[in-house]
Fold each of these.
Amino acid sequence: MITMRTLLVAAAITGALLGGSLSAQDFQPQPQGQARPPLPGLDNGDMSPAEIQKLFDAYLVMEAQQALSLSDQQYPQFLTRLRALQDTRRRNQQERIQIMGQLQRMTNPRAKGADDAAVKERLNALQELESRTAAEMRKAYNVLDEILDVTQQARFRVFEEQIERRKIELLMRARQQNRPNQQPGQQQPPIRRPNQPPPGK
């Protein structure tokens, strides 16, 4: 459920977007060593990932016509098909989160012995979801591409990627800013990937 606080944050961000203080350039990856000021509301730790995703979806809708050089005839059809794409992605993501949560609870070492049959059924459900998601997303992209020329199709993929990177960057920054007992400017230890040897070895 969207809270009043979230609505106020969304209004602040939308106002900044409409006022021109943010642009497609702002959503591109930041050069290494350069800090970017936080966007209003996204660094307070109070917004859920789903709420933040909706804000970025809204930004894409608002900036797409200019970023893709869409004509006035293309834009209404593009919006309808873009929202269908976003709804498809969001619905499948929510279902995946639900299944992964079930698997986590069922295989928690602290829980009593997991029912292998139940775990297998959830794994099968996950596999079926992944196959269905791939097919539905491919169909949604194909429908969207029908009204775009080749250059616009490429621009759309690049624009989506830029927004996704910016979203991840903001989420990571918000998480770091809201960690307890962290001194300002204190660097976090590097994240070590699985099977990666410790530093110095």
Amino acid sequence: MFDVNKNTKMNTIESRPVSYSTTTITELMIPSYANFGGKIHGGLILSLMDKVAYACAAKHAGGYCVTVSMNGVDFLAPVEVGDLVSLIASVNYVGTSSMVIGIKVMSENVVTGEKTHTNSSYLTMVAKDENGKPRAVPKLVLESKMEIRRFLEAKKRRDFIKNFRKGLQENKVRDEDVLNCINEMTNERCLVDIKK
């Protein structure tokens, strides 16, 4: 293995390939998981995503991890009662103590065999030590162009989100400016009815 940062051989304890921690969880969708519309509740899918992300991250880190954020949850298609749902998770990027876990959710109709990509998401997980402090995780060994692409995309997404959060903070409306901004709301779907 070759470390692009040091140009030296890496110790296998210091690094792990993506394949080492790639994790799949499959679960049957039973009637008690359904929402009022008869489809599988989105909250259940989110919970399963968090579970598979933890399993993947903990395996790569070799220990306890926590969820820091869930980015870009896209519900592409509904999941039906009776479907088998498989969640495939892999480490796409590592920082010092953080890992970006990419998740793809597939549902399968067991009668027809039809498979549908229903969800995708990215979760950021952080490895913790026995005192609850962030701890370093192994470097990620990238063994294919796809893994390199996912790493670079995750880094770009991370930088974009950091800038986006900064922009949100810079554009917050202060309480003292609220009444001065009412003119910006004239074409919005709201009514202003201040009693005080």
Amino acid sequence: MWPVARVSEVAARSVGPKAGVLRHPIQRVLRLAIVTIVCGFVMAGCHPSPLPFKNVDITGANFARDFALTDQNGHARKLADFRGKVVVMFFGYTQCPDVCPTTMTDLATAMAMLGSDANRVQVLFVTIDPQRDTPQVLAAYVPHFDKRFLGLYGNAATTAATAKEFKVFYQKVEGPTPTSYSMDHTAGSYVFDTQGKVRLFIREGDPPAEIAHDLKLLLALD
């Protein structure tokens, strides 16, 4: 798991904040290789549905089953709290310079494309940096992209357990000062249907229109 996630973050960093803009041919080759590896990883043990999804179909996966975290407002949260909604879950941190804000912006754009149906979708931002991402920080950061988005956090042990359940890699990269570190992490989002079953893996950089397309398919199943 470690090499796949580590390389996934390297790919995200090499692409930069403008998804799909590759400044050198080697980056195009690298991104294709990473997508192939990550897709093979998340597809293991899955039984894709016949729906024409644009993103990676991981229906039937035996991971990403649940979580026990706290939201930015201090409320304990688990997956069942959002039953009846399609849930999009992304792991990141608020001081991320490129991948995280780009992903959150893409998700907000996809929500806008859904119109009133967006009220039946819940986007969750799970911090992998609870040391700095306090409830106050999450409350200021997450709703900035869409007021309906929720930030989730746990202590160090809960964060590690949640990341393990979702096969998400993260690791602190020391900076020049104790508080200026960065975080390497898996770049991608999980999507659950209205019954709380994981259905999709959205790769970093996938277009908002494709995300909206797949969210509409899942909403239509309800």
Amino acid sequence: MKRTIVTRSLAVSLAGVFVLAAGGAGLSAAAKAETLLYAVYDGENTAGEVFKSIQRAQGPQSGERIEAYAVVSKDMKGKVRVHDQRNHDARVGAVLGGVIGLVGGPVGAVAGAAAGGLVGYLTGDAVGIPRDKVESMRTALTPNSSALVVVLEDRWVNDVERGMRQAAVRDMIASKIAAGKTE
């Protein structure tokens, strides 16, 4: 189990580096207006419970669609685990992977070298999250807490954000994601 967590964290961190190295080329072919929502809750399992509640509320009648999500927790000893993660396209997956790599901290020497690259990628033209919000994401996940990270089309942000706030959210960060630039 421990090896799986380390391997997954390393893979997520490295995915952000590969996207950064590739300059995001070809990842924004069908760019749409999207927002990243990052909510932190007290308790290691709270974010997962909130996500299940949001999923139950979504259905064919609501039309809401979360493009990508991750549920991440930090235990009392500071160990970060990615409990669940889904994404539907490479660009959104790279953004989500960058955030997970950022809050998960460096895993091994290779990922440690990548941490600065992840901040640059998330704050750069390809994603465009303000540096202060990226820093807030990095520091908000403290021991015995969990985070729910979602990427979705702008038209669903208010509904999903309302669902995320219904549980006692400790910190909520919302940021539009740049449409991405192809050169």
